Structure formats: structure tokens, C-alpha cells
Amino acid sequence: MPQAVKAHLRNDQGCDMSARETIADVAHRFCLTHRTLRFWEAKGLLTPYRREARGRRTYTAEDCQRIAAIVDGQKLGLTLEEIRDALTADNALQLSEERLGELKAAAVAAAEECAARLRRIDEVGTAGSRTVRVMPETPAQVAANTARPARAPLRMVR
């Protein structure tokens, strides 16, 4: 069984320890929408503290640490189910070395694809003012481009 690796979170975006923050404050702090926070709540990833008479959601510093862990998990490319399974009691993500290796391999592949695209852009850019026909480089790209349906031109209707 692979040894578990624990990724501790930075608390630089955490909420004030003494105060409870509203959903608007937390959404703004993490560049999220209210709807995203409510969705995570519905999926069981988050449980806001409700103490106001009107039933408003308020978040503690611990909730903010959990939100930061969810955001970090999404940046790693984890699904919400994987994030829920990987979250520990102290709001850290705990992933196996095997899963971290898979995530790293996916990131390397994406970086190589971007590098190839940049090289192709440079080739097109150095062609000067003449018109250059850009052809896909791999069979997968050819298949992806031929699978797209042609769009009809838009016409103005009166």
C-alpha cells in the first residue's frame, strides 16, 4: 500500500479566528460564487455555521481552511468526490503517492501539449506576411477537428 502524503494548507486566506464571516465575504475572499459554496454544501463538502435569526450562512476560520483545501484540490485536478475522500479532520488533503504521481503525469502531459502549441505558433509567426495553412499535428487532433459539426452562418431575421 503506498505511503500517504499529506499536503498542509496555507492559512494566509483563512478567516479571522474571532469572527464569523458571511457567505458574501467568504465568496469574495476565495473568488468563488455564492452558488458554488451552496453546491459544495449540498454535496457534503462543507457545513457552514448557522446562528443568525434569519438562518444566514456564516463561516468560521475552520470552514475557510476547508474551503481552501477544496480549492487546492480542484487546482490539482481532483474531482469533488476525490476531494471529499481526501479531506482529513484537520482540513488537509491526504493523497496516496500513486495518485500524486498520476496528477503529476497529467500535468506534465498538459505542459508538453502547451509547449508544442507554442512552438507551432512561433512557426506560423516566423512565416512572415504570407498566408500559412495550419494543419493539426496529431491524428487525435485531426479526429477532433473532423468530429465538429459545421455551423450554419448567422442571418439577420426581420
Automatic annotation (TrEMBL):
Q: Which domain of life is it from?
A: Bacteria
A molecular function GO annotation: DNA binding
Domain (HTH merR-type): give its ranges: 22-89
Listed Pfam families: MerR_1
Cited CDD domains: HTH_MerR-like (cd00592)
Q: Does the keyword Transcription regulation apply?
A: yes
- List, alphabetically, the InterPro entries matched: DNA-bd_dom_put_sf, MerR-type_HTH_dom, MerR_fam
Coiled coil location: none
Sorted alphabetically, the keyword list is: DNA-binding, Repressor, Transcription, Transcription regulation
Record protein name field: MerR family transcriptional regulator
Organism equals Histidinibacterium lentulum
